[in-house]
Amino acid sequence: MELWYGLITGILFGFLLQKGHVLRYDKQIAALRLQDMTIVKFMLSHIVVAMVGVYLLYDMGLVKLSLKPTILGGVIIGGVLFGLGWGLLGYCPGTSLGALGEGRWDSAWGILGMLVGAGLYAEAYPYLQTTVLTWGNYGKITIPQLLGVNHWLVIVPFLLITVLLFRWLEKKGL
Amino acid sequence: MSMKEDQSWSPYLAGALSGLVSIGSIWFIGKYLGASTTFVRTTGMLEKLFSPERVANMPYFLKEVPLIDWQWMFVIGIAIGAFFATVSSGSFRLQAVPTMWQERIWNSHCTKSDGGLYWRYYSDVWCTSGRWLPERSWS
């Protein structure tokens, strides 16, 4: 049953991604070139809505958080590699599938590349476990935890800054 | 230059709605949205076809078991959902080369009539999107 929920959730998400026009190579590269921030607007809108919703549910004891350990070695090196790949390909993992759904099959090459890259990572994993993945391992931390404050004191300012950013983007026509 | 450009929804609205989808998934199914682990699992599943004993012993695949799970279905769902959306607005088209790339990189090289054999091969490879450039010369 869980598998069907996954499929339905994906269909809804993919539908919204397409309607928001964030699946296209042109939009992704335009954002990375800082010319058209559509995908940033989509991403931040999602983040802000989900952040508020999830923490409300969390405060009511209805959901658990899913924290990943913060390992600087992995995150920084992985992030840079990911960025290089994203800039070259013009898609990321989820959007590459969405782009296929739109018929833009240039993303298929990226999907193949990601599969190969994942395979190489799996091969390198035992080595990485003793090196890169030990550099700067801070465990499962959150920003509110680090600052020693209630999470709403982080969420509300973030929300405000995001709204201000949106207004600025619209003003600049980005 | 693009034949039919469908009207897009506001990215704020689409993004916010997708945030609601996320909340729903976390609340009712306990699943956070993600996509990248699916690629690792798929590679593992493919490798299993060739050497299952090896995959069974690799530490990474002991951690991320190569099987079809919620996230795998989610990723497939993205392709399907995008397909429905694109068909409903009539903007589906098979395209091999993204428009921006073609304009910036291909077009800036293609309009010169340099040596024939190179361009003939090059254009065979890259013009699969069906766009024929008027100034190409076949020599």
Walkthrough of the structure:
The complex is a heterodimer of chains A (174) and B (139). Chain A is built from eight helices and two strands. Chain A has helices at residues 2-19, 25-32, 38-59, 72-89, 93-101, 107-130, 143-147, 152-172, and strands spanning 70-71, 137-139. In chain A, strands 1-2 form a two-stranded antiparallel sheet. In chain A, helix 3 runs antiparallel to helix 8. Chain B has 139 residues and is mainly α. Chain B contains seven helices and no strands. Mean pLDDT of chain B is 79; it is low at 111-122 and 127-139. At the A-B interface, helix 1, helix 2, helix 3, helix 5 and helix 6 of A face helix 1, helix 2, helix 4, helix 5 and helix 6 of B.
SSE topology:
The complex is a heterodimer of chains A (174) and B (139).
Chain A: H1 2-19, H2 25-32, H3 38-59, E1 70-71, H4 72-89, H5 93-101, H6 107-130, E2 137-139, H7 143-147, H8 152-172
Antiparallel strand pairs in A: 1-2
Chain B: H1 11-29, H2 36-50, H3 52-57, H4 59-63, H5 70-88, H6 99-110, H7 116-126
The chain-level structural class of chain B is: mainly alpha
Quote the average pLDDT of chain A.
93
Q: Could you name the ranges of chain B where pLDDT drops below 50 across 5 or more consecutive residues?
A: 111-122, 127-139
Shape of chain B: flat
Termini of chain B, distance in Å?
28 Å
Order of helices and strands of chain A: HHHEHHHEHH
Question: How are the strands of the biggest sheet of chain A laid out side by side?
Answer: 1-2
Q: Got a strand count of chain A?
A: 2
Strand content of chain B: under 5%
